[in-house]
Write the structure tokens for this entry.
Amino acid sequence: GLGPLAAREASGRALSSVLRRARAQQQQHQDEEAFEDEEAFELPHEVENRYLKLLKRQERTARHLSKKHSGGQKQRKTHKVMTISSGYLKGSPIVSPNDKKVRPMMSKVRSAVFSMLLSRIGASQLPEECRWLDLFAGTGSVGIEAISRGCGEAHFVELDPWTAGEVLGRNIAALGVEDECAVHVESVFDFLSKFGYKAEAMGGPFDFVSVCPPYNDMNFTDLVESLEQSQVLSARSFLVFEYPKEVASCLKENLGPLKQLVNRTYGRTTVAIYGPQELD
């Protein structure tokens, strides 16, 4: 057998051999990991392809959701279906959306309304110093008609940004009446409730107010109440209110400081005109 010294040397060599093999295996494992990492970084096109596929899936999802929430509707467009009926802009075309989201006052109704108003004030045209408020303006046909017939200033309230810009704003610009007009893109109810804070800056109550609300999804009782509580009307104002005959009970003999002067029906549409108490 081996002596004690020789045995220790043999044991040391065996241990060194085991350690070398262990280090070699560890190094090999590290090299393989490094190679895998290096391989991942050396193939950026694979990462890019995965990213592009993800983007395409997201775009498809976004288009699907947009189509779902919009009901698959096409982009809204306009067409010319009306003209100004009288005044210095008589015959000028007015654009309107080619869908049913905006329901402008019919031309024959508009002509009749202005004839009745002018008869009540005993004039052939509106005074230049008067101010008109067109609520639920849509195309702006009523307020622009007022400008054409002599009114010096008209304010338009329209909630829908697309209608305010692509229809109402376009009509005002095309007819060159920007200086006489102001467009307020907000809810009619908000405008009425906040008017008291800016009434003085805007010139106080209006001389004429026209209300042509959408027939569907409209609480006419709340609308009448908002008008009565607002400061847009004075005891000298005239109010034109268009409504479907089904809600006739919402409009009483008096509305705020004004009394009903006219109430006429044109098909499904009814128009009530309110004015100062001393008028018949």
